[in-house]
Amino acid sequence: MTRYFSTITKLDAALLAFVLLVVSFFVTSASGQSTFGDVVGVVKDPGQGLVGGAQVVLTSIEEQDEHTSTTDSDGLFHFINLIPGHHTLR
What we know:
This protein is an alpha+beta fold. The chain has 1 helix and 5 strands, in the order H-E-E-E-E-E. It has one helix at residues 2-30; strands at residues 37-42, 55-60, 66-70, 76-82, 87-89. The chain has a 3-stranded antiparallel sheet with strand order 3-2-5, with no helix packed on it. The longest helix has 29 residues, at 2-30.
């Protein structure tokens, strides 16, 4: 009789270890998610030349929040940690 209960205990321990492994995988993979977004772009002139030092304004349509950035020497701009929604860019 003792052998029967020790077999169930080993099976339960193996099942518990498997469940913990699966749960830890999902918890670890979910920790990198965010509710914010980024907008990245390049400003070019009509001749496709890069425009450094240009002012770029991103406006949230719903919130009417305005974010301003200046392009680097390669014409690149980057807005980070934005609330999801509709935006205009000028």
